[in-house]
TrEMBL record:
This is Cytochrome c peroxidase. It comes from Flavobacterium terrigena. The lineage of its organism: Bacteria, Pseudomonadati, Bacteroidota, Flavobacteriia, Flavobacteriales. Residues 241-381 form the Cytochrome c domain. Signal peptide: none annotated. SUPFAM superfamilies: Cytochrome c. GO terms for cellular component: cell envelope. Transmembrane segments: none annotated.
Length: 396
C-alpha cells in the first residue's frame, strides 16, 4: 500500500513538472498592480519594471563611496525620486526639492538664491552630482548636517524654504506625515518599499538620500581618458595638448617664494578637489569668499563644496552661479579668485593652503595657463545626467 502511494505521489510530481516544461512559453507571470501610482504617474513610474539605480556602472578608478549605511536600492531610489519632485512636500504645494536643484543645471539652480514658500534661500543651492563618491559625509556649505540623510529633511523643516518648521505658526513635520499618509500613491509606495504604509521621517530621509546618491556622472571626456591611463597624472591619449597641460596644472602643487608668489609647479587645485572623484577634502577651510547674500556681515563658516564634475556643461555654459554667494559666474572668474588671495579682515578660517608663509597666494597665471585649466575643467562634464529619465520629474 505504501509503495503504491509513493508511486502515485511520484506520478503527480512528474505530471506537474511535465506541464511546467510544456507550457513554459505560454506562462505569464503574475504582476502586482498599483492603481494609485499608475493613475498619478502613468508610464513614468513602473513598479514592476524599476529603473536601475542600485547597480549602475562605476569606473574601477573611483574608490570613494559614502553609501554603506544606506545602500541604494531600486525601490528606495524610486520612492526618493517621487519625494524629490513632489511639491506636496511643501506647506502650500508650490515647492519641491527639485525647485532648487534642477536637472538641467546639474541639480543646482540658475538663480543666486532659490525661492521658497516664505522667502529665498540664505545661500546658493549646491549641485547634487556624485554626492555618493566623496569622503566628506557632511552637507550644506557650512557642513551643519552630519549626513545626507539628515540634510534631506532640513529644507522641508525650514520656515523659508518648504515651511513645515513647526514654529512661527508653521505646520510641523508631523503634519506633513499626516498629509502624505492620506495620499493613495504614497500608501502604495511606502508599502512597496518598506512593507508598511506607515510613513516616518527616517523612511523619507533614507529614500531621498538613495535617490540623490544615485545621481552620478561618469560619461565625460576625462573618464574616457582616465579609463585607459595608468594614473591621473599620465597624459590622456584623448586629450588635446591644452587639456593635458590644464590637467597637469590642476594636479601639481605650486612652489612659492617668501612673498607668496608662485615660482614653479602647477596651481594645486587637487589639494582640495581630489581627483578622480574631484570631491572636496573634508579638512578644507574657507576659500576666501566670505560674503553673504544679504550683504550684511561676513560668513567664514563655508568650507564644503560639491564635486567639480559638471561644474559647467560640455559646451562651457555654466550650470548656474558658483560659490555659496553665487558671486562667481565663469570658470575664468573662479580661477582668477584663486590666482590672487586677499586675506580679508575677520577671516580667521581661511584655508592655510591658500596662504603660503601666511601670505595670500599669488599664482601669476598666464593667459595660456588660464585657458588650459578652463579646457581641462570642461572635460569633467558629461551629458547623461541632464536628460536621463530616471532622474527626471515623474509628475510631467
Amino acid at each position: 500500500m505504501k509503495f503504491t502511494k509513493i508511486l502515485q505521489f511520484c506520478a503527480i510530481v512528474l505530471s506537474l513538472s511535465s506541464c511546467n516544461d510544456n507550457d513554459e512559453e505560454n506562462y505569464t507571470p503574475i504582476t502586482a498592480t498599483y492603481p494609485a501610482v499608475e493613475a498619478e504617474f502613468g508610464s513614468s513610474v513602473d513598479l514592476n519594471n524599476l529603473a536601475n539605480y542600485a547597480n549602475q556602472a562605476v569606473p574601477a578608478y573611483i574608490t570613494k563611496d559614502n553609501s554603506a549605511l544606506n545602500p541604494i536600492s531600486d525601490k528606495g531610489a524610486t520612492l526618493g525620486r517621487i519625494l524629490f519632485y513632489d511639491k506636496k512636500m511643501s506647506v502650500d504645494n508650490t515647492v519641491s526639492c527639485s525647485s532648487c536643484h534642477k536637472q538641467e543645471f546639474a541639480f543646482s539652480d540658475n538663480t543666486i538664491a532659490s525661492n521658497g514658500v516664505n522667502s529665498t534661500t540664505g545661500r546658493h543651492s549646491m549641485r547634487l552630482i556624485n554626492t555618493r563618491f566623496a569622503t566628506e559625509s557632511k552637507f550644506f556649505w557650512d557642513e551643519r548636517a552630519a549626513s545626507l540623510e539628515i540634510q534631506t529633511t532640513m529644507p522641508i523643516k525650514d520656515h523659508g524654504e518648504m515651511g513645515f518648521s513647526g514654529a512661527n505658526g508653521d505646520l510641523s513635520f508631523n503634519d506633513l506625515i499626516v498629509k502624505l499618509s492620506a495620499i493613495d500613491y504614497y500608501k502604495e509606495l511606502f508599502k512597496f518599499v518598506y512593507g508598511s504604509e506607515e510613513i516616518t521621517e527616517t523612511k523619507i530621509q533614507f529614500a531621498l538620500a538613495q535617490f540623490i546618491r544615485s545621481i552620478q556622472s561618469f560619461d565625460s571626456k576625462y573618464d574616457t581618458g582616465r579609463a585607459s591611463a595608468p594614473n591621473d597624472g599620465a597624459p590622456f591619449a584623448n586629450f588635446t595638448a591644452q587639456e593635458n597641460q590644464g590637467k597637469n596644472l590642476f594636479l601639481t602643487p605650486p612652489t612659492f617664494n617668501a612673498s607668496g608668489s608662485r615660482t614653479g609647479g602647477g596651481i594645486g587645485c587637487a589639494g582640495c578637489h581630489r581627483a578622480p572623484e574631484f570631491d572636496i577634502d573634508p579638512n578644507t577651510k574657507n576659500n576666501g569668499i566670505i560674503g553673504t547674500l544679504s550683504g550684511v556681515g561676513i560668513d567664514i563658516t563655508n568650507t564644503r563644496a560639491p564635486s567639480l564634475r559638471d561644474l559647467v556643461k560640455v559646451d562651457g555654459t555654466t550650470n548656474g552661479q558658483m560659490m555659496h554667494t553665487g558671486v562667481i559666474t565663469s570658470l575664468q572668474a573662479a580661477i582668477g579668485h584663486y590666482g590672487t588671495i586677499n586675506i580679508a579682515p575677520g577671516n580667521t578660517n581661511l584655508d592655510p593652503r591658500l596662504t603660503p608663509g601666511g601670505i595670500g597666494q599669488q599664482l601669476n597665471l598666464t593667459a595660456a595657463e588660464v585657458n588650459s585649466v578652463i579646457a581641462f575643467l570642461r572635460t569633467l562634464s558629461g551629458t547623461d545626467v541632464y536628460t536621463n529619465t530616471k532622474w527626471s520629474n515623474p509628475f510631467n
